Amino acid sequence: QVQLVESGGGLVQPGGSLRLSCAAAGFAFEYYAIGWFRQAPGKEREGVSCISYSDGSTYYADSVKGRFTMSRDNAKNTVSLQMNSLKPEDTAVYYCAIPRYGCFSEYDYWGQGTQVTVSS
Question: Do the Cβ atoms of 114 and 23 come closer than 8 Å?
């Protein structure tokens, strides 16, 4: 069955960096876009970034553009999210997910999430 497992979350000071990973299994990874989402307490889930399967094009929310970088390794069935210059408002549970079609379609499968806390 489809599995998505996030890792790499933790506690970091403002201005610091973290690298999240999402390990995928159970589907033809190389033919699917993958997205990252986050949800902070009391807030709605928001899209953070997405990477296409065809040419590796990436898309970012305005709030993270220039600070976050998403990449994929089709040989290892993983995607990563490098997060730099972290801010307290980046605190959230981060999820990777598989869209039904491309990055801007509905998302059908989700990981369990990894907590990111940015605090001094």
Answer: no
